[in-house]
Amino acid sequence: MKSQLIRAAFAAVMLGLxxxxxxGGLIPEPNANxxxxxxxxxxxxxxxxxxxxGRGFMTSTxxxxxxPGPFTFVYPEWIPGEHGPTGPxxxxxxxxVSADGRPLAWRRDKVDMYAFHVEVPQGISSxxxxxxxxxxxxxxxxxxxxxxxxxxxxxxxxxxxxxxDYYIKASIILPAGWGxxxxxxxxHRTGDRIDFAEVPLTKLVDSPLDCGRYFRQVLxxxxxxxxxxxxMFADAPQDLDVPAKILAAYKxxxxxxxxxxxxxxxxxxxxxxxxxxxIGYQGIEHHQSSDDRAPADYMIKxxxxxxxxxxxxxxxxxxxxxxxxxxxxxxxxxxxxxxxxDLLWVYEGMNQYLGDLLSFRAGIRAPGQYPQYLAMIYSxxxxxxxxxxxxxxxxxxxAPYLYQASGQYSSIxxxxxxxxxxxxxxxxxxxxxxxxxxxxxxxxxxxxxxYSQPKLTGPITKTYTRADIEKLLNEVAPYDxxxxxxxxxxxxxxxxxxxxxxxxxxxxxxxxQPNPFIKARDKLKHMHYQWLSYGxxxxxxxxxxxxxxxxxxxxxxMMPGMKIEAVNGQxxxxxxLKYALVSTEQTHQPTVFxxxxxxxxQTISVSYFGGPRYPHLVRIPGTPNLLARIMxxxxxx
Length: 637
Ligand SMILES: [Zn+2]
Prior knowledge:
The chain folds into 3 domains: 44-212, Immunoglobulin-like (Sandwich); 222-505, Orthogonal Bundle (Neutral Protease, domain 2); 516-614, Roll (Pdz3 Domain), CATH 2.30.42.10. The chain contains 21 helices and 32 strands. It is an alpha+beta fold. Strands 1, 2, 4, 5, 8, 11, 13, 14 and 15 form a 9-stranded mixed beta sheet that branches. It is globular and about 90 Å long. Mean pLDDT is 93; it is low at 2-29. It binds zinc ion.
């Protein structure tokens, strides 16, 4: 994906990072200097009773090492990969603290509500903290058949520590008979209880666990001791019957990613994938695993693979870009220090391009369809009124809150999704500039090989600044990269990048022919795209999801949340609306809508006579087709 203040130099020392990260200004010292009581020899122990996870809750019991006197323990707030203060504090319930078998009074901090204070009596070296972890409000993390276990939701730890030095020994008790998968190493199993080795807190939180009744593990790739696994958990067993053709494409993921980056920073990688219509669509990256959540028929329906086939490749790519290479000010030493998200235009923006690129190169999506995909996202970015006032840097800076925004008027507000979508265009632009300026000798792949050096490290972090990125790009292809990013990211850019299309040998056109990606998305998500014609997108049953500012629908007074009841006197159906749209081209009569909102009905006439309109890319004759080269498989399969 979809935390804490550090000086880069400080981070480089504390994290044992390889490579220098340049200082990016003065930022207050982080609160990560406390003496750590939970050491490797004397770790915090955590027993997570997940046997009730199918019913929507778990019970966590911790023994936290302490010393007598005032002590503060905290619940993780700023969650890596979620890029915000999203630790679900309201899901913490039935908190009980005891010392040596006797209850110990606790109180919540009045300002920092993630912090809890106790007074540890003399002679006490650990306190027992126990609480109920609610799983399904507001996010759904479990069903009667599956549970997604994010350890950060199930633990407390000592305040102000460096999470590389703080050790936890975790155990889990699974629902009877369920399977599980995680990047953590198990040391012992008794029945449904699994004990894991003690690991630094950062590694535990970086290693989510999925468990479930219906489980299928597929070895996607192996080389020596290194493995890549696909671990699928479904609500229904038939959703695990993945067609051989789809699985075969996923086996190309690792070879393509290794060809792209020329390095590896994981030893055993698990793509943990839930297949459920109850658990929301989500992907969260980790060093040696990803927490992927998709609809029930995601792995069996080719349309899903076409529309959202970059879910696993996007998160996999993050192992290199986001976990190994990370913005200096997003890199923190515990989960209470706020993350700075300004450089997400690299972390997420470039990754959106790379995740898509891997999905096409691996054959999860047909490489020849990339131009149509690109046309869809280009037209989306080109019709956002919000871009005339908000530079991309403001969206990344405000990301922790924009991620929480709901859909209405998203084109006016702009959303966190924009630095993904526009990021794709931006980094395609970078790729084509490198290819053109070096006459095809280099590409963004060359940059990524340098970016992710050295070849094999295991899961560590190496930070970067904006200047580091520009310097490295300059080594690959000399160019004023600073001015380039200034123009497209740091200043208001009224139009999305467009040089990349021309350089790649393509141009954008609009026609009545449906764009295949828009068509597939509409079908899967029960939407009806009229963004470039009337100027709205419809959801189920004619509900207006968004209205484009300045469009004919906007001019006529339509707004999100309205429900179209009738079109030209006929009850609304997709086919009725389609007929009306096509007819206007001949009749030049406004389309008359009856809409409902909050029990009130209204008649709205929309003056649009242009017929259906969809974006497409077409070739510029006589120019090299860079898109074909970029998306072609790069690894030998
Ligand atoms: Zn991401």
